[in-house]
Design brief:
single chain; about 130 residues; alpha/beta; 4 strands; about 35% helix; about 15% strand
């Protein structure tokens, strides 16, 4: 996705990146491809904070099931309209306020995302809650 495409999506949705939410959208296709290349081509994947779907687009063909959790209702509507694939589950929620075990595809083989730095540690701790290593 190019910057001009992203700006168009934001304008049409009436959105601006929210600094409070730490939003910065991944738009570089080659970076998204490199991230997705590290994902095993089996099992279910959880993507946290998919934004406008640059990484989602690369993960979907590699996943048996892909659940994406996005806090913005406008962005989840955009994603639902952009991707028409039965393997994709678009969930509007604050990831820190949900139980990951309630999400479609749990347990996840892989967790991915372009996480805001400010919430990366709480997200990691959230995922480890209840896990035994």
């Amino acid at each position: 996705m190019l910057l001009t495409e992203l700006m168009g999506h934001l304008r049409r949705a009436g959105l601006r990146p929210d600094k409070k939410l730490g939003q910065n959208f991944l738009i570089n296709s080659s970076v998204a491809s490199r991230i997705a290349a590290e994902i095993p081509e089996e099992g279910s994947v959880l993507e946290i904070g998919p934004g406008f779907g640059s990484l989602t687009e690369k993960l979907l063909p590699r996943s048996e099931s892909l659940s994406v959790v996005e806090i913005s209702g406008s962005i989840t509507s955009f994603l639902s309209n952009r991707f028409k694939d039965e393997r994709l589950n678009v969930i509007q929620a604050d990831f820190l306020e949900i139980d990951p075990s309630d999400l479609p595809g749990y347990p996840f083989v892989t967790i991915a995302g372009n996480l805001p730095y400010s919430i990366s540690s709480p997200i990691l701790f959230r995922m480890m809650e209840g896990r035994r290593f």
